[in-house]
Amino acid sequence: MKHKLTAVTLAAVVVAGTAAAVVPASAAPAAPSRCHTADLKAGFATGGDAKPEMGQTKKQTQAFIWFTNKSKHACTLAGFAGVDMVGAQKTDGTWSLMRSAKKPPKMTLQQGSTVDFSITLLPVAKSTAQKEKFVPAKFLVTPPNETTHFTLKWPFGGQILKQDGATHPGTYINPIGL
Length: 178
Known about the structure:
Elements: H1 2-15, E1 33-34, E2 40-44, E3 61-69, E4 75-78, E5 82-87, E6 94-96, E7 98-99, E8 106-109, E9 114-121, E10 133-134, E11 136-142, E12 150-153, E13 160-161, E14 172-173
Parallel strand pairs: 1-4, 7-14
Antiparallel strand pairs: 2-3, 3-9, 4-8, 5-6, 5-11, 9-14, 10-13, 11-12
């Protein structure tokens, strides 16, 4: 029955004046599924120009976190990672970072491929009042549309202006791939 249907479809295409190869739906490649936390590994980019300038206090700087597809298949990522900073001081607590207004692209991550996203940071001087600074210790990073996170140790030192209750803080995350 399946062969008759293929022959009839092929005949209809030839009659219409166009020859084409007919591929049964079962043979068509499946679109990649979204990346799950178990498909990925994550870390901070630490090489050369990827390091944030935590020693300066006049402007914002950026840190980069990467995701690498460690699975044996391609998968897609789109959107923003969830990022919670855990502070080193007892008064810091956990700060869930807000998202930028940038539009995220949808990306297909092939096996072994890496993509990153940036965190815009607003560093402060050591002389800033203790209650106004946040000292990062760990970052809890959750891939888009997932509930399981990676725990990454903050490798750069420095302090960030504490704006965890601000509507438009100077520290925020950008979408994956931008």
